[in-house]
Amino acid sequence: MTDYIKYIIRFVLLALFQIFILNNIDLFGFMNPFLYIVFILTLPFKIKHTPLVIISFLMGYFVDLLTGNIMGIHAASALLLGFLRPSIIRLVSSNESDYDNKNAPDLMSMGGKWFFTYAGVLVFVYNFSYFFLEHFTFSHFFKTFFIAIGNTVFTLLAIFIYEFLRNRKSSR
């Protein structure tokens, strides 16, 4: 299978898993893992910025469209995630050789510390923008901030389980 077909299948499966399974999880009344963003996080390093932003927007829009909630929150947050991804990769990497010979940022190829830092920053940015757009107020800044932190931890846990299972399956 070509890489494009693999990415399209993963795009659809992660979005559908998010919509039909994970959106029904509601831990403590606010925590819902946004696993579908792992698709954006693990796109190849060599992808150009404009296609990355477009793919990120489409992923968020697809989730918004099928969820039926407030339109545009996932799309806007995913768009921000795709826009900031190259900058965060450069920020957490000591130099370009850290990822020059790697295909994509994943847990196995980049190592746990690098991936945790990379994913942690981007997942927090996603959650922060998502919850502030959802509440659309700064009157409860700290409450929203702590909700974003809690959901970041929950999402990172889901991402690490996903990465572990995906890498375990591919190493066989």
Question: What does this molecule look like?
Answer:
With 172 residues, the chain is mainly alpha-helical. It has eight helices and no strands. It has helices at 3-20, 38-41, 49-67, 73-92, 97-100, 107-110, 112-135, 141-170. Helix 4 runs antiparallel to helix 7. The mean pLDDT is 84.
Low-confidence stretches: none
CATH topology: Arp2/3 complex 21 kDa subunit ARPC3
CATH architecture: Orthogonal Bundle
Distance linking N and C termini? 18 Å
**The first-level CATH class name:** Mainly Alpha
Structural topology:
Layout: H1 3-20, H2 38-41, H3 49-67, H4 73-92, H5 97-100, H6 107-110, H7 112-135, H8 141-170
Helix pairs in contact: 1-3, 3-4, 4-7, 7-8
What brief labels describe this structure?
8 helices, mainly alpha, single chain, 172 residues, Arp2/3 complex 21 kDa subunit ARPC3, 0% strand
Task: Briefly characterize the structure.
The chain is an all-alpha fold. The protein contains eight helices and no strands. The longest helix has 30 residues, at 141-170.
